[in-house]
Amino acid sequence: MAAFGVHSHRCHLSKLPGLSARRSSSRQSVRLQATHKVTVLPGDGIGPEITKVALQVLEAAGKNHGEDFKIQEHLVGGAAIDATGQPLPEETLAACRASDAVLLAAIGGYKWDSLPSASRPEGGLLALRTGLNAFANLRPAVVLPQLADGSSLKREVVEGVDIMIVRELVGGIYFGQPRGFSANEHGHKTGYNTMVYSEPEVERIAHVAFDAARKRRKRLCSVDKANVLEVSQLWREVVTRVGKEYPDVELSHMYVDNAAMQLLRNPKEFDTVVTGNIFGDILSDEASMLTGSLGMLPSASIPSDGPGIFEPVHGSAPDIAGQDLANPMAMILSAAMMCRYGLNLPQVADDMEAAALLGLLPKWTPRIRGLVLLNLLVLLVATNWVVLRDTETFFDAFDFAALRFTMQLQPSLLS
Ligand SMILES: NC(=O)c1ccc[n+]([C@@H]2O[C@H](COP(=O)([O-])OP(=O)(O)OC[C@H]3O[C@@H](n4cnc5c(N)ncnc54)[C@H](O)[C@@H]3O)[C@@H](O)[C@H]2O)c1
Ligand SMILES: CC(C)[C@H](C(=O)O)[C@@H](O)C(=O)O
């Protein structure tokens, strides 16, 4: 038990979100301080590198508000396979279940690519999602003005994009049965999967999406392939039915192939998008490029109750692992989402997002940094920040975030 009076600080869907970047009121109701139990899963590839950065920012921001995090690291993915033979050891799942939130970096790598599906690192991630029943995956794609030129699309196309993709995460073709390999009547080896959704599965994700849309710009686009697939026809029917309970939200439907095209043609037409597991996987990677880098997109995977999983949209990037090239932004922003939606610590989330945005100021030289700092201080004082804060801690967070990102918007990070 912890935050805001009496309720537990594990995930509550009712607290979810417009989720676009926004400041919290500095006048919060009185809350009890508590230790927040966070299970951290660094995973593979760039996972440990970006985890280190995110935890330093988390701890600095937490300190600002007297919040204490009890961090426990556990194995998942390839690292867990190497150590235990399992991509999701029992001990890891038990620790996740017993925590207030799970912060996961990324799993996977070439080394484990030839293993059978369930034994691969990806199998561990999927088992974690189902093990916590984290059915609602929220993937915000917001284009920051300072990154608008980093997108492969024109500035005028992407500037101002603010999309929330709500992806169903524990059903659909990823989990449908039957699945496997067999031989057809010609003796040819075949592989098959089943894309299946039941009415309750669609209903619950539709409610999450309508609630999110209601707190945003009140437009929801449901993406399916109802011109071909029965599973999508059911999806459309159920989403339409649920929509009757949200007369204030404008609902539209779009085929996934058209949605993929419209996301590039006119991304600003989208506000909130709801879709199934595989379409959401693909469209969220596509949306990430609107923001300039896959390394920018955080996500929250939320159950109806219990701890949520907070993880970047990107993978373990084995091609750049260990070279200090990874953009830690998505991981920091995922940890911020964890504070906001998993731990009910909106002010800590605000600080983390602010620190992350500072890291995006281009081309740091000592002189520019000094000037920016000065301007920033003026801005912060003007917006009531510094007067309310422990300045030294703020600068800890600032220094770390801004310098460690180094990035100076290296073109390689905007791949
Ligand atoms: N949630 C997850 O853990 C997750 C998600 C996607 C892929 N994966 C796994 O990751 C492995 C690699 O998959 P992939 O190459 O298709 O996808 P990926 O997201 O790991 O990488 C795609 C490209 O984006 C770059 N990139 C990704 N994150 C970056 C960051 N933070 N900073 C800078 N550049 C970044 C990579 O260098 C690569 O060029 C696979 O094993 C895959 O299954 C895991
Ligand atoms: C690694 C893989 C199982 C995962 C998915 O497909 O869900 C990834 O692509 C993601 O988007 O988180």
Q: Could you please describe the fold and organization of this structure?
A:
The chain has 415 residues and is α/β, with parallel strands linked by helices. It has two domains: 1-134 and 303-415, Isopropylmalate Dehydrogenase (3-Layer(aba) Sandwich), CATH 3.40.718; 139-290, Isopropylmalate Dehydrogenase. Helices cover 39% and strands 16% of the residues. The protein is built from 13 helices and twelve strands. A ten-stranded mixed β-sheet has the order 2-1-3-12-11-4-5-10-8-9, sandwiched between helices. Bound molecules: nicotinamide-adenine-dinucleotide (NAD) and 3-isopropylmalic acid (IPM).
Provide tags for this entry.
single chain, 415 residues, alpha/beta, Isopropylmalate Dehydrogenase, 2 domains, 10-stranded mixed beta sheet, two-stranded antiparallel ribbon, 12 strands, globular, disordered C terminus, binds nicotinamide-adenine-dinucleotide, binds 3-isopropylmalic acid
* Main beta-sheet annotation: 10 strands, mixed
Q: Mind telling me the CATH superfamily name of the largest domain?
A: Isopropylmalate Dehydrogenase
Q: Overall pLDDT, averaged?
A: 83
- The CATH architecture of the largest domain can be given as 3-Layer(aba) Sandwich
What Rg, in angstroms, do the CA atoms define? 21 Å
Total number of strands: 12
Strand portion, in percent?
A: 15-25%
Ions, cofactors and other bound molecules = nicotinamide-adenine-dinucleotide, 3-isopropylmalic acid
Percent helix among the residues? 25-40%
Number of domains: 2
Please give the count of helices: 13
> What strand order characterises the main sheet?
2-1-3-12-11-4-5-10-8-9
* Name of the level-1 CATH class of the largest domain: Alpha Beta
Distance between the termini: 42 Å
> Given the C-alpha coordinates, what overall shape results?
globular
- Give the SSE order as H and E letters: EHEHHEHEHEEEHEHEHEHEEHHHH
Return residue spans where pLDDT drops below 50 for at least 5 consecutive residues.
1-10, 17-30, 362-369, 377-415
Fold-level CATH name of the largest domain: Isopropylmalate Dehydrogenase
- Going by helix content, strand content and strand pairing, the class is alpha/beta
